[in-house]
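Sample intake sheet
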Amino acid sequence: MRIGKLNYVSDLRTIWNSEAKDFTPWLAKNLDLLGAELGIDMELVTTEHEIGPFSLDIYAREVNTGRPVVIENQLEPTDHAHLGQLITYASGADAKFIIWIAKEVREEHRKAIDWLNQVSGEDTHFFAVEIQAVTVDDSNPAPLFKVKASPNEWGKVQKAISTGGTAPKSSKMLYYHEFFTKFLAELKKRHPHFTNAKRVGYDNWYTFGAGKTGYSYVVKFPDGNRFSCELYIDLNDKEANKAKFDELMRYKNEVSQVLGDLSWERQDDRRYCRIAAYTDLTDDEELIDWGIKKLVLFRETFSKYL
């Protein structure tokens, strides 16, 4: 067996000459690679996002909760100026996920990120990540992310509990947390590359990205004992949402041949639209099996129309 030699690219600017013109646009198109290392499903909102007189490299959102993500890039070792910018952007965007990417994370800045995680609330998460590039023999370079600092989730939760920061959870909320924890684990077991997500909250839904801003796939308990899987459409514009829904309606027969009878909900009195499948199953294992199968079919079927 022939085994290749792994080589590290010493000068990242031979790959991305300009941070603003090359690296940031590349990363914006490949947030899934970064998300895989962080355990976060992210969806791009915009690049060069204005915050006062400053410009944030990448503004994104965490798919399941919609919470803001800010990303600051450096193709050089970390410095104090960018640390200040990172905090400014986090404050200006009310970000819950704050990610600093650099060629090298200096020790004093790694400690600063660790400290920010210690003193911030349980729903705020700071990351320091090194970007490297490698080749195997004479192959094209491949990106390599290395997480150098990240939040201690267990520590944040324990801190919140000890200080009274965690609100009491109802029995329903605890059930949703347990159910979607099992759901996510089984989904990853069957389809390892379907999502980067690791975190599970206490809501009655779980959201997965559709690979395109404004669309998502959701499994949820909408009301009573019903469980659903849906394509959720919200392009931040009511007219655009209705237009896209009407466009999808033209493929209703084709979609139904694969997904069966669906509820096509235009929701004229609301901004968003949805196309959903519902079940009255009550057993958790059956619900998880039904939900995973529908979720995968929804993505496979609708992706060609979005």
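Comment: The domain at 6-160 is CATH 3.40.1350.10 (Trna Endonuclease; Chain: A, domain 1). The first helix runs from residue 19 to 29.
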